[in-house]
């Protein structure tokens, strides 16, 4: 078996022969930046290709446009050493070196996967790709997409090896996890698989090789399983609360020094750009016969409506100002994509006098107010995102609705 050190040295020779060793398409996003900086940190010259001119300008200036731990230092180092190239046009793509596409398969308004985004991206890249140039899909794709793409390129008379190497990092910690976890690698040909393994072998010593359909399922199954886990605990929460029981006390009793229950997560709003979307993709692949996935969606999305109904039961919301604490989709992050806090806000607006919102990390929402102002002006508080900084808040005796169990010791929880 080839030793990891040999793989890394071979990859360096293979990919460092060109002016640009790796191009990351969509490289200024949450998937692309950690990957691009990790390759640059290994000595490769990386092109970050993205349509977002604002994000590219920030990167050129040495500023990471969102929270990604460890990225700022790597960005400065890569800029100082001349290892980054920035481009917003497809015509700027080099005809050599691997091209990694970080654009995945979205779902449409009917919760069906849409291949048109991937197809449009590839169609735009195709005139600028050379035969023999490795093309790697990185973000979640609908099962079968990788093989479909390889066939699509052949039908257009192109000899472009295609691979799928799924991204699996926790947002915000991609830099750290890329170097610490195995990388799943698949290719539509043995040559594509080997080239992808050589490249990702620069980042980690452990490569897991499977067929493309297996790599696609590995990614989508992982996200779906997590989504179902959250749905399970959220359903438990609603059952316990409806019975007048404290779910956090129950959860503590279940998990304390009992290893078989250690993995059960707490209740909370399961959101973000991946879990819901990928669960619906799997449901579509299963011809809508994936009852667990649909049930998870109804529970996790329905938790918002349950919370609003509970607040209406406890308060006369028509004369109430509600302060919503936290708008990001997860704690300690600045990303609001698919955040259920916004679903909460929109639903509450139909029933309350006013909704005030705040978040210490989010910078893209002009309606956000300072947290002190929100607490002062609100009659009732609602925890949308349990940022750790909120532990230090003086709630001024205001009642708070808290699904997460974050303020369980405050004495003011509804």
Task: State the main characteristics.
single chain; 414 residues; alpha/beta; Rossmann fold; 2 domains; 8-stranded mixed sheet; 4-stranded parallel sheet; 14 helices; globular; disordered N terminus
Structural notes for this entry:
The termini are far apart. The protein has two domains: 4-210, Rossmann fold (3-Layer(aba) Sandwich); 219-401, Rossmann fold (3-Layer(aba) Sandwich). It is globular, with a radius of gyration of 23 Å. Helices cover 41% and strands 11% of the residues. The chain contains 14 helices and twelve strands. It has helices at 4-15, 32-41, 53-60, 71-80, 116-125, 145-155, 174-178, 190-200, 212-242, 247-255, 275-285, 291-314, 340-348, 371-377, and strands spanning 22-25, 46-49, 84-87, 98-101, 135-137, 162-164, 183-187, 207-209, 321-325, 354-358, 380-383, 400-401. The protein is an alpha/beta fold and 414 residues long.
Chain-wise SSE layout:
Blueprint: H1 4-15, E1 22-25, H2 32-41, E2 46-49, H3 53-60, H4 71-80, E3 84-87, E4 98-101, H5 116-125, E5 135-137, H6 145-155, E6 162-164, H7 174-178, E7 183-187, H8 190-200, E8 207-209, H9 212-242, H10 247-255, H11 275-285, H12 291-314, E9 321-325, H13 340-348, E10 354-358, H14 371-377, E11 380-383, E12 400-401
Helix pairs in contact: 1-8, 2-4, 9-11, 9-12, 11-12, 12-13
Helix percentage range:
40-55%
Second rung of CATH, namely the architecture of the largest domain: 3-Layer(aba) Sandwich
Largest sheet: 8 strands, mixed
Unreliable segments of 5+ consecutive residues: 1-8, 13-17
- Annotated CATH homologous superfamily of the largest domain: NAD(P)-binding Rossmann-like Domain
| Strand order in the sheet with the most strands | 3-2-1-4-5-6-7-8
Strand content: 5-15%
Given the structure, what is the number of helices? 14
Cα radius of gyration in angstroms: 23 Å
Q: How does the helix and strand content classify structurally?
A: alpha/beta
> Could you name the CATH topology of the largest domain?
Rossmann fold
- What count of domains describes the coordinates? 2
CATH class of the largest domain: Alpha Beta
Mean pLDDT: 93
Overall shape: globular
In angstroms, what separates the terminal alpha carbons?
60 Å
Give the topology string: H per helix, E per strand: HEHEHHEEHEHEHEHEHHHHEHEHEE
């Amino acid at each position: 078996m080839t030793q990891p050190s040999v793989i890394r040295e071979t990859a360096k020779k293979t990919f460092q022969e060109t002016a640009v060793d790796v191009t990351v398409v969509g490289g200024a996003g949450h998937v692309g930046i950690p990957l691009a900086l990790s390759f640059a940190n290994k000595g490769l010259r990386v092109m970050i290709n993205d349509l977002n001119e604002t994000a590219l300008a920030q990167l050129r200036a040495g500023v990471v446009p969102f929270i990604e731990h460890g990225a700022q230092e790597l960005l400065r180092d890569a800029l100082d050493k001349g290892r980054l190239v920035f481009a917003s046009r497809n015509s700027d793509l080099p005809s050599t070196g691997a091209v990694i596409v970080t654009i995945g398969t979205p779902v449409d308004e009917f919760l069906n996967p849409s291949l048109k985004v991937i197809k449009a991206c590839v169609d735009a890249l195709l005139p600028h790709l050379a035969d023999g140039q490795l093309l790697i899909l990185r973000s979640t794709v609908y099962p079968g997409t990788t093989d479909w793409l390889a066939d699509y390129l052949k039908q257009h008379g192109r000899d472009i090896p295609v691979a799928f190497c799924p991204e699996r990092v926790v947002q915000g910690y991609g830099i750290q996890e890329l170097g610490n976890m195995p990388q799943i690698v698949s290719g539509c040909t043995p040559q594509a698989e080997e080239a992808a393994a050589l490249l990702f072998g620069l980042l980690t010593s452990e490569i897991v090789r499977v067929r493309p359909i297996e790599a696609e399922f590995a990614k989508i199954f992982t996200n779906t399983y997590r989504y179902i886990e959250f749905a399970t605990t959220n359903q438990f929460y609603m059952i316990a609360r409806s019975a007048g029981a404290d779910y956090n006390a129950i959860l503590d009793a279940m998990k304390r020094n009992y290893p078989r229950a250690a993995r059960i997560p707490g209740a909370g709003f399961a959101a973000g750009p991946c879990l819901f979307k990928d669960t619906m993709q799997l449901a579509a692949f299963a011809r809508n016969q994936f009852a667990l996935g649909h049930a998870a969606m109804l529970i996790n999305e329905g938790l918002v409506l349950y919370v609003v109904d509970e607040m209406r039961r406890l308060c006369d919301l028509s004369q109430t100002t509600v302060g919503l604490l936290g708008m990001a989709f997860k704690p300690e992050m600045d990303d609001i994509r698919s955040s259920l806090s916004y679903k909460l806000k929109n639903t509450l607006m139909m029933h309350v006098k006013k909704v005030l919102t705040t978040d210490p990390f989010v910078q893209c929402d002009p309606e956000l107010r300072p947290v002190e102002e929100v607490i002062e002006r609100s009659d009732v508080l609602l925890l949308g995102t349990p940022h750790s900084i909120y532990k230090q808040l003086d709630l001024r005796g205001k009642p708070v609705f808290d699904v997460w169990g974050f303020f369980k010791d405050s004495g003011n929880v509804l």
